Amino acid sequence: IPNDIISHDKDRIAVLNSTSSTVQVFDVNSTGGELFHIDLPAGSNPYQMSWDGNHLWITLLMTSQVAKVDLSSGGSVSVIDVKANPTSIASTGNSTLVGHGSWPDTSITGGITVLEASTGSVIDSIITNDNVTYMRYFSETGLVHAMTSTYMDGVISIVDPSSMEILTQVSTGGSPVYPVEAGT
Questions:
Q1: pTM exceeds 0.70 for this model
Q2: Which of 38, 73, 119, 130 could lock 110 by a disulfide, CB 3.0 to 4.6 Å apart?
Q3: Residue 64: CA atoms inside 13 Å, Cβ hemisphere, count?
Q4: Tens of pLDDT along 140-164?
Q5: What is d(CA 161, CA 15) in angstroms, rounded to the nearest whole number?
Q6: Which residues are CB-neighbours of 50 under 8 A, at least 6 positions away?
């Protein structure tokens, strides 16, 4: 069951698979065959991933962890403990922001944990609305957009990862999902 796809190189894509707990790497210029795959912790339900230019970062929803995957060294995996329900993730190069949802541990309502990219150490946290479901880093602005929603009350929080502050919030209603860049 593929949960996410990301281009991490001009000729390669990575596909994150939930039930098999794997990342498959494909060369887009080849016949579509898998180049290799990387095993993640069994039963971890890998949920979303981001690319920081050197590593894939993957939320492991059921284990309250994120995986830092080094594709250049043959797929070595480092696992880092975080707050429960890591659902979404965005990498800025220097830091990785991990969004937390409100499931499966309903005592966790949301928020963002900020990790130092080179070490994986927790350096800060950001209070958000409940249930951070998706995040994306926009290199053009240097900002992260974090989508939150419980039921028909969607909000996009615009986060400055340098100051660890929410600059503004946009009420959308509904349930906003993965942001895309629309035009230039």
A1: yes
A2: 130
A3: 9
A4: 999 999 999 877 789 999 999 999 9
A5: 26
A6: 6, 56, 57, 89, 90, 91, 96, 135, 137
